[in-house]
Amino acid sequence: MRRARYNERLSVSDSASMSSGVAKRYAKAIFGLAKEDKKIESLSMDLTSIGDALQISEELNQLISSPVYNRLDQENAILAISDRMGLSDLMKSSLGLLAMKRRLNILPTLIEEVKAYIAEDKGEVTVNVTSASTLSDTQTKDLTKSLEKTIGKEIKIEAIIDESLIGGLIVKVGSKMIDSSIRSKLANLQNIMKEVG
Q: What residues have CB less than 8 Å from 150, skipping those under 6 apart?
């Protein structure tokens, strides 16, 4: 393993890369078990529940990322949260294992990785669409049709709201991003004006 050194520490990018690799391995195992037990739908619902909880709960984010909690506290807390949320046995035991191994910090990446395995298994492509406000059903359907025509596969839209965009959309498919937001256009205009002035 190649390490970038700075005062004998791993660089941030190496650390993120290692976390991503670990998340991928756990995701593959979790997906494999769910597929074997024919529980993909249940797993998918669990991932949505946990993802939503991470979006709204600062306490949950603290639990998974803060080093002040010891292994046992993290494990007990995440198992209690799993029970309260009604998560499947597979997800509950997976979260317990992550806590035991001090790996709960990879949870957001793990969720994305498992979702990618599920989408691939269904022949779907997940597209992240960020907008200033919630898209209407008609807008979502039109966007879905347009993207399916462009990509050539069935797509699943994951909607994200970012009120700072003012208007327009940011569409992300894998590593490709199309930024047609008004915020981005204003920033570009500002840069052009600086160059002129």
A: none
With respect to residue 6, please indicate whether it lies within any of the assigned structural domains.
Answer: no
**Amino acid 189: pLDDT:** 74
Q: HSE-up of 141 (CA within 13 Å, CB side)?
A: 3
Question: Which of 60, 93, 119 corresponds to the end of one domain?
Answer: 119
Q: What is this structure's pTM?
A: 0.63
Structural domain that includes position 41: 12-119
Percent helix, strand, coil in the chain (nearest 5)?
65, 15, 20
Residues 6+ apart with CB under 8 A from 104: 63, 64, 65, 74, 78, 95, 98
How many CB atoms within 10 Å of residue 42? 16
Cα separation, 140 vs 157, whole angstroms: 8
